[in-house]
């Protein structure tokens, strides 16, 4: 940040918003326009048709997942994100005040998943359906991916610190209940989804939560956090790193 402030030319930056600061929807499209302006207009129109949430004074950003199916059955999966301009302007003003130009807007959990996906490419994750759990920013985000395509998204505000949540039996049970309910809804909507693998993204000791997910939901669970990327050489010895630093790496990688 200091380097950007004293630079003669403003530097471009990606802004990652907390999951709870946006509204999201999973859409399925038969075609995706090549031009970004046309694609954004189509996604905004579809959101308006679905009437999932109000779009007045909202900026729409999206991530398109590769087409799946064959021939006439080929479809594209899109995670559409609506950000109120009043919220986005606060982040943009902060960036501009230190000489940075926001050039891209995203949400934290999706970028963290993308980072994990790149790091796990050799693990063959594309051949599996995955339950993703993010515990950050005092919230719980649950996403389900079917062979790389997002099919389900839910974000719940938990309150308190994520580490406190894991230390509280009642809130840990709440997380388990939310995961169980999300899987039930997802499988009702997508009967072909078969979840056997889960990833928890968060700080702190999660052995207890992992054990409950493995025992109650019969899932093979791994944790993705700062220690996962520290093994690759990021960070300095003794430095205090956590979800904020992990999200920063996800935003630039």
Explain how this protein is built.
- The protein has 253 residues and is an alpha/beta fold.
- 38% of the residues lie in helices and 32% in strands.
- The chain has 9 helices and 10 strands.
- The protein has helices at 2-6, 36-50, 85-97, 108-119, 162-167, 169-189, 207-216, 226-230, 243-252; strands spanning 11-17, 23-29, 58-68, 75-84, 100-107, 129-136, 139-146, 149-157, 195-201, 220-224.
- It has a 5-stranded mixed β-sheet, with helices on both faces.
- Helix 4 (108-119) packs across helix 9 (243-252).
- The longest helix has 21 residues, at 169-189.
- The model has no long low-confidence stretch (mean pLDDT 83).
Strand and helix layout:
Layout: H1 2-6, E1 11-17, E2 23-29, H2 36-50, E3 58-68, E4 75-84, H3 85-97, E5 100-107, H4 108-119, E6 129-136, E7 139-146, E8 149-157, H5 162-167, H6 169-189, E9 195-201, H7 207-216, E10 220-224, H8 226-230, H9 243-252
Parallel strand pairs: 1-5, 6-9, 9-10
Antiparallel strand pairs: 2-4, 3-4, 6-7, 7-8
Helix pairs in contact: 4-9
Task: Please sum up the structure shown.
Helix content is 38%, strand content 32%. It is an alpha/beta fold and 253 residues long. Strand 9, helix 7 and strand 10 form a beta-alpha-beta unit.
């Amino acid at each position: 940040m200091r380097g950007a402030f004293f630079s003669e030319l403003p530097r471009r930056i990606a802004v990652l918003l907390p999951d709870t600061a946006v509204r999201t929807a999973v859409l399925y499209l038969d075609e995706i326009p090549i031009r970004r302006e046309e694609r954004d207009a189509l996604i905004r129109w579809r959101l308006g048709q679905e009437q999932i949430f109000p779009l007045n004074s909202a900026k729409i950003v999206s991530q398109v997942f590769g087409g799946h199916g064959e021939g006439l059955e080929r479809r594209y999966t899109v995670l559409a994100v609506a950000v109120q301009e009043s919220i986005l302007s606060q982040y943009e003003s902060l960036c501009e005040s230190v000489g940075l130009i926001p050039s891209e807007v995203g949400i934290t959990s999706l970028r963290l998943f993308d980072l994990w996906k790149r790091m796990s490419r050799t693990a063959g994750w594309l051949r599996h359906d995955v339950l993703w759990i993010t515990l950050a920013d005092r919230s719980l985000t649950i996403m389900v991916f079917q062979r790389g395509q997002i099919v389900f998204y839910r974000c719940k505000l938990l309150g308190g610190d994520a580490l406190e949540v894991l230390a509280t039996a009642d809130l840990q049970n709440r997380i388990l209940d939310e995961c169980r309910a999300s899987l039930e809804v997802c499988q009702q909507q997508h009967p072909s989804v078969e979840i056997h693998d889960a990833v928890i993204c968060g700080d702190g000791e999660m052995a207890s939560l992992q054990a409950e997910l493995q025992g109650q939901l019969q899932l093979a669970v791994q944790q993705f956090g700062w220690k996962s990327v520290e093994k690759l050489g990021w960070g300095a010895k003794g430095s205090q790193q956590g979800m904020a630093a992990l999200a920063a790496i996800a935003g630039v990688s």
